[in-house]
Amino acid sequence: LLGAGGGNDIQWCFSQVKGAVDDDVAEDKLLSELQYRKLKTGMRTAAKSGLSLSENKTQSHSRGEYNVYSTFQSHEPEFDYLKSLEIEEKINKIRWLPQKNAAQFLLSTNDKTIKLWKISERDKRPEGYNLKEEDGRYRDPTTVTTLRVPVFRPMDLMVEASPRRIFANAHTYHINSISINSDYETYLSADDLRINLWHLEITDRSFNIVDIKPANMEELTEVITAAEFHPNSCNTFVYSSSKGTIRLCDMRASALCDRHSKLFEEPEDPSNRSFFSEIISSISDVKFSHSGRYMMTRDYLSVKIWDLNMENRPVETYQVHEYLRSKLCSLYENDCIFDKFECCWNGSDIVMTGSYNNFFRMFDRNTKRDITLEASRENNKPRTVLKPRKVCASGKRKKDEISVDSLDFNKKILHTAWHPKENIIAVATTNNLYIFQDKMN
Amino acid sequence: MLGKGGKRKFDEHEDGLEGKVVSPTDGPSKVSYTLQRQTIFNISLMKLYNHRPLTEPSLQKTVLINNMLRRIQEELKQEGSLRPVFVTAAQPADPLGDSFREAQPAFSHLAAQPLLPAELVSTTPLEACLTPASLLEDDAFCTSQTVQHDGPTKLPPPALQPVKDSFSSALDEIEELCPAPTSAEAVAAAADAAADDAKDHPSESGVQRPEGVPESRAAEPKLMDSLPGNFEITTSTGFLTDLTLDDILFADIDTSMYDFDPCTSATGAASKMAPVSADELLKTLAPYSSQPVTPNQPFKMDLTELDHIMEVLVGS
Lengths: 441, 316
What we know:
Chain A: This is Serine/threonine-protein phosphatase 2A 55 kDa regulatory subunit B. Chain A has about 450 residues and is mainly β.
């Protein structure tokens, strides 16, 4: 499916880019989350200070053109007076809810508070009231001589985003994940040490289902890094840790799921052991495949596919940027080693994740081929086919290859998303959003 | 700063560890291994202690850095198991519950556990020459910490004893008109000397010159000191609290010379700090002169000495 060859291979070409042109990153524009809407052809990105939705305006499938549909401020910066610290408004995660009626609902979260937003469109408005003027002023009833029936008339599309629920004060530590259950009634939120279960309708109560906080905080050596509900089993969820383990829990087993049902962990490779082994094993993202049979984890250097039936090792491992293994000390010094890359599925066949220098990678599980592409404004023309990129790890650098030392570690792609139905992908650089699509489209 | 000094010291000392070191690599790459380990150790310390965010630091990052430090510490412990292990202060148990810890100002990176009077009592031999902890705690220590962290904070380090030693001996350094400690070496020397010597000379009035103690030898026991402190909210680890506190303390004084600007809160506070800490210095130095001193009594110190101290602090 991947590759520059002919046949059924996808040829990715540039579609659109949104965001600032210059490289100077305005703090509030940093893209912090990216998600495709599951059922409808929409997409939302969260910038640090707000939340922006893009809607696919063209109904035909010829071109997936996305335009800004709505932008609103999801969270505000707050100040924790007790600790004298700021709570950033930066959005960590967004999740769409399945659509039940004309309106869309999504959950967005910053470090401490989760909000449920209702996004509704209004493209009609009633006109012709008897007792009110068009501008809203009340008419003098004595001037009414005839009666008419108000009618709906079209108006310019207005998108309204209103907060419907605010789920606050349930997390002492920073929220890193939210995941909506397949029952569409409950969802979980995970911070560094605890996972809470909420009901979408109830904001003043949540149930703690995982708590790994030790009695003595000095003994703390492991934190929760991500959590997700199983796409089909509403009682099953997984959470990953900073030590590279994934625990699968069944909520039917007990109220507090401190004991996992399954523990997924790959034994350390002794030949690759280094000071940084633990840090690079920390899992930054975990995603179930759409079928729920597999799950994918992203650690610093690789993407691993796990079969839920096999706990002792992943079934596949893909190296994202192995050439960084010799640079770990520098990456530790400049904190890049703590970057949290996400990953995403296309169904169950292709996985995608980001890297540095605005590169992103795709791995085809079936053909075992992989490709590296770059999100840059140089490929600006629509329908320009993206050229595969290659990083030269060592030795002679071939033409068009990039040497490891010339990689820009400030240009990192942490968030990528694949359209649920089409071969359209969205890739977020620090302050730009790129959309690429299959040339066939 | 800390890194360079550390590296040099460690290298010099490495020769003495031939044959005793258990390291994954052997031969000439053993040195590079220990060199890298020391570098990583220093980087980790810098990350924990030099970071002053406006928002809470990431707990995951803190935990990972702490684990790194612990691992290196364990390795060093095993390597140094044939050498005399320094007596460490007992790990103070956290007496308070979550609510208190969560309410603590989060920028108290260095230590978040409240001081237990019991801990002081346990280190009797050293108390004789040291300032009562309460004085140190409430006055000079807290004040200087306050300056750096933009707010009032109670900052007893988990390992109290080394802190008092290093602080008092660092003060002694100023008193002795040593060159202003601008490098980690001097700081480490102060800390190590205090830790080493205070134990040997409990009766001295505290006027100690940092000996030519092999700093790496003393640094090793320091590394074996108490485990990381409170994770709650902040990064406090208790690793080398004395060293890093001094490091920050003097670092602050150093930069005040260049950044003197009454408008900025940090340096503004720093400039305010000078007279305050000088007062506290005098108070804390009083016991060393073995004379009963009240704030009203004129100090016996030479005025020129006082001026020198002021100069060092203010940097003018």
